[in-house]
Amino acid sequence: MKKAKDPFIPPHLFKNSNYVVTLLVSFISVACLFGLMFSVPIMLRDVYELSTLQIGLAMFPGAMSAALIGRKGGQLVDQKGSRMIFLVSLLLLLTGFLVVSTTVGTHPVIFSLSLVFPMMCFPLVQSSGADLLAGILSQKETGVGMGVFNLLNFVSGALSGALVGKVLDIYRPDYPLNPLGVIDSGAVYSNVFIVFMVLILVGFIVFKFFHHSPLQTKTESP
What's the predicted TM-score (pTM) here? Predict the structure, then answer.
């Protein structure tokens, strides 16, 4: 990248702190969401012993909430601003993982409804993150910048699935880290969701304090 005359991904792109912070937090968020979608079907089979049809029905409310919110996500970004929606979606996602961690081992209907909270955040994170990057990048950088964004989303999903799968293979705790969680065979899943919650919290803090809005950037510039 540094030696090529016209590199496919220009190095100066990563000197933009707002771009890097948005990429990093989006990577963490999407990784946690893909980790959720990867682990929930396994958990429903392992803990609740549900059939394939029952697993699909249990995940249906969460998937439907994502579809319904997705229709309004773009409008919310336009009305409220991408930075605010991104922060709100991170807070909702953090809360959602806490709720899901707490309901692991409860009645399947209760757990199914709890999936609505984190799943509805997926389109909000994606749409607001993409809009943030579009506003950060210049017209010449948009194609490459958004390409890197999409690439990292795929990488985060693959990495998350691999790590969560390995954790489920080797880690079998007796008690959940969540003090509100149910003590049963689902402790490992409850703990995975708590880790996701902590990662989202870290992402929220990083974005809140290291990503500057255009107004702040202009004010701070000499």
Answer: 0.86
